[in-house]
Amino acid sequence: MKKLYIFTYLISLFISGCKSDDKVPVIDQRDSSVGTYVCDVKVENYTTNTLLRSYVDTIMITKSGRKEVQLSSAKKIQLPVLKVLDRDSYYGLFTTLYFEKGELIMSSGPDSAFYEYRGYKIR
Question: Scanning 90, 93, 102, 110, which has its CA 20 to 30 A from the CA of 80?
Fold first, then answer.
């Protein structure tokens, strides 16, 4: 009987000494945004609110650094590096990008030419 008590005591010591590691996985919110998007682009004059031109462009979004995303255009339009604002939003120099129900919506333009991108992910 003494051996049984000693055995159960040792088992209880062993169990109490085991620590459970509740590791929380680190999820990068940029993962859902990374990909290729086909966008309708409208270029408007900001002051007169007139449409200057429109075209279709392909935008590639990749991770850059710890909290940024890099945008590249198939039409070689220079786009800024954007920083994470919140779960579905990014911001940069004269540029905001956000996702609404799976649609990419980006507006950019420091001068009278104002660019508006709207598109969906294809890859």
Answer: 102
